[in-house]
């Protein structure tokens, strides 16, 4: 009674339409349906269009029938293949050709491999900007944050957030300012007078400690390399001509390291043959020079963070005798 044959026999005896085999089931269904229509028990009606089943996206994309618009566009690196590439250069070639950190930076920042002297100059910028002691605002903030028990990233960010027009962030402005001045054809003396009349500071000029009698060796290193290796240095020469005039007023109104890096960098990218003038202007507008300062100085900030932990320095509190307290009573002036 549990067999399929017994069940089929019972259904036939009960009046079911049972095919002799499962393969004949469609034929049986069609026959029964046709008989019911002919007998008038079923009145056929027009059926609507079959709803369109949405195509599976993954399947369609695999077949190349559809494409999805990208949320991001990247043109500097690719990690999808068997080997990571930097602007088309495989990571193995990066090492086998020994392009160095300057070469990697040129690929990722400028999307092309610059000449060896240019990548060397980039590495020099990172080296001379790596640190300038614990007293500058960025290093100070990093040290204070480290001594407060914060982590490396927080301490580094604390220092980086001080970078701006007064500390390290004037490179792009200095580059644009001197490049425009040199390109305008105005004599250095006349340009200085113009800046003075418009009450504008000349970015990249002036140092708190260094002067003509006590030159900044970082400036000497950068200036010497540019003069020796670059095809031409018109912007640097213009800045040095400005320095000759400003130092007559005060000996410390020299071309500082920010200004020297800025004008030398402009000469480098303009004379290396890798960029058009428009591309050079874009690089200065994009902030790549300030980026070099941020990258270089991060080395020093991290060093100060590690130094404070190594020395096991306690929480920093500024001494009272180094603060001038000014208190005002209600309705009275300061005492």
From TrEMBL:
<dbReference type="GO" id="GO:0005829">
    <property type="term" value="C:cytosol"/>
</dbReference>
<dbReference type="InterPro" id="IPR016143">
    <property type="entry name" value="Citrate_synth-like_sm_a-sub"/>
</dbReference>
<dbReference type="InterPro" id="IPR002020">
    <property type="entry name" value="Citrate_synthase"/>
</dbReference>
<dbReference type="InterPro" id="IPR036969">
    <property type="entry name" value="Citrate_synthase_sf"/>
</dbReference>
<dbReference type="GO" id="GO:0003878">
    <property type="term" value="F:ATP citrate synthase activity"/>
</dbReference>
<dbReference type="InterPro" id="IPR016102">
    <property type="entry name" value="Succinyl-CoA_synth-like"/>
</dbReference>
<dbReference type="GO" id="GO:0006633">
    <property type="term" value="P:fatty acid biosynthetic process"/>
</dbReference>
<dbReference type="GO" id="GO:0006085">
    <property type="term" value="P:acetyl-CoA biosynthetic process"/>
</dbReference>
<dbReference type="Pfam" id="PF00285">
    <property type="entry name" value="Citrate_synt"/>
</dbReference>
<protein>
    <recommendedName>
        <fullName>ATP-citrate synthase</fullName>
    </recommendedName>
</protein>
<dbReference type="InterPro" id="IPR016142">
    <property type="entry name" value="Citrate_synth-like_lrg_a-sub"/>
</dbReference>
């Amino acid at each position: 009674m549990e067999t399929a044959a017994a069940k089929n026999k019972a259904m036939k005896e009960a009046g079911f339409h049972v095919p002799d085999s499962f393969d004949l089931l469609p034929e049986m269904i069609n026959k029964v349906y046709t008989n019911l229509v002919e007998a008038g028990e079923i009145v056929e009606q027009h059926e609507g269009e079959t709803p369109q089943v949405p195509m599976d996206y993954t399947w369609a994309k695999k077949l190349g029938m559809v494409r999805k618009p990208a949320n991001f566009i990247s043109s500097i690196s690719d990690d999808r293949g068997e080997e990571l590439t930097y602007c088309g250069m495989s990571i193995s070639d990066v090492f086998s050709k020994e392009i160095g950190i300057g070469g990697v930076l040129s690929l990722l920042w400028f999307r092309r491999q610059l000449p060896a002297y240019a990548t060397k100059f980039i590495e020099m910028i990172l080296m001379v900007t790596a640190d300038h002691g614990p007293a500058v605002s960025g290093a100070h903030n990093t040290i204070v944050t480290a001594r407060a028990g914060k982590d490396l990233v927080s301490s580094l960010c604390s220092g980086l957030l001080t970078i701006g027009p007064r500390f390290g962030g004037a490179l792009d402005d200095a580059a644009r300012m001197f490049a425009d001045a040199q390109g305008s054809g105005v004599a250095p003396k006349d340009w200085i007078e113009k800046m003075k009349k418009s009450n504008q500071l000349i970015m990249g000029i002036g140092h708190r400690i260094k002067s003509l009698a006590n030159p900044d060796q970082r400036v000497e290193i950068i200036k010497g390399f540019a003069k020796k290796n670059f095809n031409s240095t018109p912007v640097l020469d213009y800045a040095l001509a400005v320095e000759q005039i400003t130092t007559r007023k005060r000996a410390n109104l020299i071309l500082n390291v920010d200004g020297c890096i800025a004008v030398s960098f402009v000469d480098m990218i303009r004379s290396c043959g890798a960029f058009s003038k428009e591309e050079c202007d874009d690089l200065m507008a994009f902030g790549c020079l300030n980026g070099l300062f941020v990258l270089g100085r991060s080395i020093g900030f991290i060093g100060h963070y590690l130094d404070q932990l190594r020395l096991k320095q306690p929480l920093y509190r500024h001494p009272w005798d180094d603060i001038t307290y000014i208190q005002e009573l209600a309705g009275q002036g300061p005492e």
